[in-house]
Amino acid sequence: MPPDKIDFLFLTHAHIDHVGRLPELIRGGFRGEIITTEATAFLLEPMLTDALGFSDFRRDEQQLILEEIGQLTWGFEYGRPSP
């Protein structure tokens, strides 16, 4: 499925094998919601900043990707119902 056709992405935790392809999804056109716990949302930027240091993304593109991920992500508190 093309990334621009995906509506939601649910992240269970911030291990790099679960979040490491987010920049490629964004580069491919993904603009759906990223749903995860607040703790995982908090860890996305440092995890991806580190991983992007080993990628072919230019520095300016890395920053734009991280900003986009931040805008698309919303977290919920684990074990607490949504309002």
Task: Give a description of the structure.
By secondary structure, the protein is α/β, with parallel strands linked by helices. It has one domain. It is 47% helix and 14% strand. It contains four helices and three strands; from the N terminus they run βααβααβ. Helix 3 runs antiparallel to helix 4. It is globular.
Topology overview:
Layout: E1 8-10, H1 16-19, H2 22-27, E2 33-37, H3 38-52, H4 59-72, E3 73-76
Parallel strand pairs: 1-2, 2-3
Number of helices: 4
Biggest beta sheet summary: 3 strands, parallel
Radius of gyration: 13 Å
Structural class: alpha/beta
Mean pLDDT: 92
Please list the strands of the largest sheet in the order they lie side by side: 1-2-3
End-to-end separation in angstroms reads 32 Å
Query: Which stretches of 5+ consecutive residues score pLDDT under 50?
Result: none
Assembly state of the chains shown: single chain
Helix residue percentage:
40-55%
What percentage of the residues does DSSP assign to strands (E)? 5-15%
Order of helices and strands: EHHEHHE
Count of all domains:
1
Number of strands: 3
Give me a quick take on this structure.
47% of the residues lie in helices and 14% in strands. With 83 residues, the protein is α/β, with parallel strands linked by helices.
